[in-house]
Design brief:
With 380 residues, the chain is mainly alpha-helical. Helices cover 68% and strands 0% of the residues. Helix 1 runs parallel beside helix 11 and helix 10 crosses helix 12. The longest helix has 31 residues. The N and C termini lie far apart (81 Å).
């Protein structure tokens, strides 16, 4: 992530957001590893429950930070004509959605023959990112604080309407449409998960508006707002009455969105404090954050693929903990190797290798007339 008004760094990336994304990757890695390998008995214990409880925050952070990147991209294109800005935003959505399709096909292939064609239609977090980027592309028409207000309003609207959408009868709609729209315990639907992407777009649109010397104050406000959202969400969730006819806190409640958003803001403030004042040099957490897509892609294949299939749903809590640490270490190592590869040069190197691997015919040496005459005199 890049922004002009952020504190300086050697790579011009926003250090604390990379660190926050790396933390989300760690949370995700342990959550998926426990989910893939924990035995039925282990799933009843507190270790698994806490693992999945904290693991649910990772998706919210990833969606939020992807929205931040999306908003920053809109800022960089404000000098372009209106239609060019919208089409560029739509292309970003197309890119994310194509990644989601490729990801689903890979998972289906790696899990075969235990996978089914229905698995190809599963709505994962990458699918939602692509859809939200397309839906919010119209926000590219706005500039500065206007886009901040539009994106924040969209986030509030999505969160507020989630219980309403959940209560609507969906019998007449195709299942694939319901998977993308209606709140679900197994899918990343627009309601309510899309709210985090919209809020991230608001944050990304606001970052260039912050003066360089004001970031300490901004992050202090982020921490205070995070606490306010967290406690307000819990307070309203515990009230004995509700404006909604029906609402499930863990499925479609706006209070849950407020709680997760508050936690993300608190973690962002902590990440800023850590990266700006408490550490210098290389960070394995930031390393994961700068290659989060690779980490996401690779660990799913390892956790849920056929390579470690014999241990799926068989490990106790301690073994799952060891496996989680091993997965994190493996992903850090893979991330370092991934960053060392100059991917733009890979096609050219493969072509050179292919041409060099084909055996060339032995050169034929032909003597000229002077050399032949000299050799004849020598023999005489």
């Amino acid at each position: 992530m890049y922004a002009a008004g952020m504190p300086p760094s050697t790579s011009h990336r926003i250090a604390f957001l990379d660190w926050l994304r790396g933390l989300a990757a760690v949370i995700m890695l342990q959550g998926h590893t426990f989910d893939a390998f924990a035995s039925p008995e282990t799933r009843k214990g507190s270790a698994f429950i806490f693992s999945q409880f904290f693991g649910g925050e990772a998706a919210a952070i990833f969606l939020l930070l992807t929205g931040v990147t999306y908003g920053l991209g809109m800022n960089r294109r404000e000098h372009l004509p209106a239609w060019s800005r919208v089409t560029a935003a739509l292309k970003r959505g197309r890119y994310l959605f194509l990644l989601a399709v490729i990801f689903r096909v890979q998972n289906w292939a790696f899990s075969y023959p235990h996978s089914s064609l229905v698995d190809l239609l599963k709505v994962d977090v990458l699918n939602l990112m692509g859809v939200m980027a397309a839906l919010l592309a119209v926000f590219a028409l706005a500039n500065g604080m206007q886009r901040v207000r539009w994106a924040a309003g969209a986030g509030v609207l999505i969160a507020a309407l989630s219980p309403v959408v959940s209560a609507l009868p969906g019998g007449t709609l195709p299942q694939i449409v319901l998977d993308y729209v209606a709140p679900s315990a197994t899918m990343f639907s627009i309601f309510p998960w899309g709210a985090y992407f919209a809020f991230g777009c608001a944050v990304g649109s606001m970052i260039p508006l912050v003066e360089r010397g004001a970031w300490n104050r901004v992050m202090q406000w982020s921490a205070m707002c995070g606490f306010a959202l967290l406690f307000s969400g819990r307070y309203f969730a515990d009230l004995p009455f509700s404006i909604y006819a029906a609402s499930d806190f863990w499925l479609d409640s706006p209070a849950l969105v407020a709680c997760k958003l508050g936690i993300a803001m608190l973690l962002a403030s902590g990440a800023y404090l850590w990266t700006e004042y408490l550490t210098t040099g290389w960070s394995w957490m930031r390393q994961l954050g700068t290659t989060s897509l690779f980490v996401y892609w690779a660990h799913i294949a390892l956790d849920y693929g056929r390579l470690f299939e014999r241990w799926h749903l068989r490990l106790n809590a301690w073994a799952c903990g060891v496996a989680s640490v091993a997965m994190i270490v493996a992903m850090v190592g893979g991330s370092v190797l991934f960053r060392r590869i100059v991917w733009r040069e890979v096609p050219a190197r493969m072509i050179r290798w292919w041409k060099g691997s084909q055996a060339a015919p032995a050169p034929v040496y032909v003597m000229d007339s002077h050399e032949a005459a000299a050799r004849t005199r020598k023999r005489a």
